[in-house]
């Protein structure tokens, strides 16, 4: 099997020793292995002809690799050695930072697991999308701060956001009905921002996503949302709208940032829908 190790040397936990160890373990098992940085000019060519992509990075690196694969109309299988800042999909698949275990799992592709991603306009997202106070907060996070502080960079950005709170009115069209809200969370993964969960029913293996709409997104509403994820779902408000769907359209003021998988991935307006074909991940 032709295996591409797609690494992001800017990922928060990137370790060249792990890259070398995984390459050695896969070669020992008889695979043809190539390692290329996702920002290298050779990346596109190698991705277009590989059978399997092991992403050494986080959800953002995985998302970029999926987008590129779809642009070439190729469908390799995927796995992740979790070296990013948050690593939500790796949590779902229970991938570890262990080269030998990962090589064994890549060899087990006889029984792959389907993962339905979502699309925001024409680009994929793999775990979560949000628009509201937290997307403005993520917009404050720089690559330099992520490199220096890791997950804490998001906390520092949120503290800044608390002092300069922004609210907006979103128009969300679902199944022909328009709903007004000040914040929206579109969830493929049951995990959000780490080991916590906004919706335990979210399922990456199903062709749908879970949606949470907050009619008001004041500071106290957002703190309540975080408490519902970190402490208990009992902090959820009956005023929030929660549903599942596979297609919606979101609009607001032009330029409103959209957070996807821990990065700013676009601005409104935006159509969000389930990708028609699932990805294959190592079991």
Automatic annotation (TrEMBL):
A GO MF term: kinase activity
The protein's name in its UniProt record = Uncharacterized protein
Q: Which superkingdom?
A: Bacteria
InterPro entries documented for this protein: ATP-NAD_kinase_N (IPR017438), Diacylglycerol_kinase_cat_dom (IPR001206), NAD/diacylglycerol_kinase_sf (IPR016064), YegS/DAGK_C (IPR045540)
Q: Residue limits of the DAGKc domain?
A: 2-106
YegS/DAGK C-terminal domain ranges (all copies): 130-280
Q: Which residues cross the membrane?
A: none
Point out the coiled-coil segments of this chain.
none
């Amino acid at each position: 099997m032709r295996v591409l190790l797609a690494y992001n040397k800017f990922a928060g936990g990137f370790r060249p020793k792990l890259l070398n160890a995984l390459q050695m373990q896969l070669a020992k098992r008889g695979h043809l292995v190539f390692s290329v940085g996702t920002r290298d000019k050779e990346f596109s060519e190698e991705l277009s002809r590989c059978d399997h992509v092991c992403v050494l990075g986080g959800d953002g690196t995985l998302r970029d690799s999926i987008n590129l694969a779809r642009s070439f109309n190729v469908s390799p299988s995927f796995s992740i050695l979790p070296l990013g800042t948050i690593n939500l999909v790796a949590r779902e698949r229970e991938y570890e930072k262990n080269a030998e275990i990962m090589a064994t799992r890549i060899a087990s592709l006889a029984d792959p697991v389907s993962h339905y991603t979502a699309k925001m306009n024409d680009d994929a997202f793999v775990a979560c999308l949000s628009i509201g106070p937290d997307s403005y907060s993520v917009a404050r996070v720089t690559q330099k701060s992520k490199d220096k502080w890791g997950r804490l960079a998001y906390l520092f950005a949120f503290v800044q956001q608390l002092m300069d709170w922004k609210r907006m009115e979103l128009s969300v069209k679902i199944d022909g009905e328009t709903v007004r809200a000040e914040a929206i969370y579109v969830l493929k993964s049951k995990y959000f921002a780490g080991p916590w969960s906004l919706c335990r029913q979210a399922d990456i293996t199903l062709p749908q996503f879970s949606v949470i709409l907050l009619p008001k997104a004041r500071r106290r509403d957002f703190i309540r949302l975080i408490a519902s994820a970190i402490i208990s779902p009992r902090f959820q408000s009956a005023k929030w709208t929660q549903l599942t769907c596979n297609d919606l359209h979101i609009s607001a003021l032009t330029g409103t940032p959209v957070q996807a998988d821990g990065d700013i991935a676009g601005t409104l307006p935006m159509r969000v829908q389930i990708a028609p074909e699932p990805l294959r991940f190592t079991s």
